[in-house]
Amino acid sequence: MTWAIAKAKTETGRRKALRPGEAGLTLIELIIVVTIMGILATASIPVVKFEVKRSKERALRQDLWEMRRAIDAYKDAADKGGIQTKADSNNYPPDLQTLVDGVDISSKHVRFLRRIPVDPMTNGTEWGLRSNQDDADSDSFGGQNVYDVYTKSQGTALDGSKYNEW
Does the predicted model carry a pTM greater than 0.85? Predict the structure, then answer.
């Protein structure tokens, strides 16, 4: 029990009426508390946005790594003679869907990707593709084979680099 309530009790156990200002919060105290809570909530918004962006960047790097690993595995299998490819493809896959659908390698059906990942920056499965016949900085796909993938997002990463350059 607080001191004001204990003082207000009589010996019979009944309460006396409290005088103004003896208990409770004043309006000014309440306004100060609400203002402080608002400031703290407002200060946390940039931190949350930063964390969401960092999470998307982490997912983008993971997806790019996964697709590039699948492209390399396809090329390795083709270089070893397990996959029949076109002469001008340099043993790279013709498209990403081939990596998902899989190919037959010595009587086994091998899939290199479970699915085409969703680009966390554009929320779609449309990725930028590069053929090894294309220029290194080209953003148009020649269509001969898939040598590399990149996001079509024009955004800038937290480190200042462009997402489509990753």
Answer: no
